[in-house]
Design a protein that fits this description.
Elements: H1 4-11, E1 16-19, E2 23-30, E3 33-35, E4 40-42, E5 45-51, H2 60-68, H3 73-94, E6 96-99, E7 103-107, E8 113-117, E9 133-134, H4 174-180, H5 183-206, H6 213-242, H7 246-254, H8 257-261, E10 282-287, H9 291-301, E11 309-312, E12 318-325, H10 328-339, E13 346-350
Antiparallel strand pairs: 1-2, 2-5, 3-4, 4-9, 6-7, 7-8, 10-12, 10-13, 11-12
Helix pairs in contact: 2-3
Length: 351
Amino acid sequence: MNLAKEISFLLYKHSCVILPGFGAFLINDKAAERNEIAKYALPKKQIISFNRQIVNNDGLLANHLSTTTHCSYELGVQKVETYIAQLWDILRDKRNAEVAEVGTFYYTKEDKIVFVPYHSVNFATSSFGLPKLRLKQLSATPAIAKPIIEQAPVKKVEPQKVVVEKPVFALPTIEAQSTIVPKKKLRNEKIQANKLEKKTKEKKQSEPFKISSLGIINALGSLFLIAMVFALLNFENSNDGQGLTDTQIASLLDTPASEAADIDLANSSDLVITPEKKIVFYGIYAKTKNSREASELLNDLMDKYAQSELTISEDGKPEVFIISFSSEELANEYKNLIQNKIDHKLVIKQN
């Protein structure tokens, strides 16, 4: 069995490969070489040497064979021993034995083994594949002088001055300038003037109708209060005209029942006494924490609500009366409207 390929493969990874009982291959570094006389350069190399004194089995080659050939370690050791025995037989018969890609063994007459490595094989992986370079000497070539050609002197030609007459333009008169204004510009100015006049008219027409919602509600409330005052006055006048005098009531009490029955039914309405109707108002009040807040709120509301005043609630806390309405629905709507403008809580109470 030839193990030359396995030995060569292991030498790329390990610095020592031992053949048990035969010797060991060792890797030695060799620096890059440059020979100026022979004119060549060699890269950094790793060359092989052989030592007959190292014969102990380290198990590297046998373990590699068991891994690659999928056999046991003992079988790998047997293969290594068989290869070494074959190598001895070749040396005794031919006096030389070649290990491919590694080197050649020679067996001398003095029973000594001489190993000659292959110098063309480089086991350094960092410079693997770099060839031997031939050096060439570069010589500087002299520059070729260009012949100088004499040229005849060039006569200077003075440029001739060309006089260009500027055209004279006559300025138009004032009347002519007025006609130069483009018609399109005049038309645009007229359109802009018409738009401005139209906007001013629309603004004047819309200004009388710009009344805030708060002003409308105040006007309605004032009209309602005036109507209620007139209704009360009419009601009191009607009661005064229909009331019975003391003499009439006394005569009715003294008159017998038969005579009282003969009283004209047309005047029987004078005997009915109707109770006085109570008018209920719903006032809007603002709750405050103390008298200072109530006074500040009252000062702010006096300009808009002339009826506003400072009052005391049932729980003894100060509050500000703002306005009142005869309709609870109208009071609720107005309360919701001004709640966003006042920071204090608003409540509705019957007056």
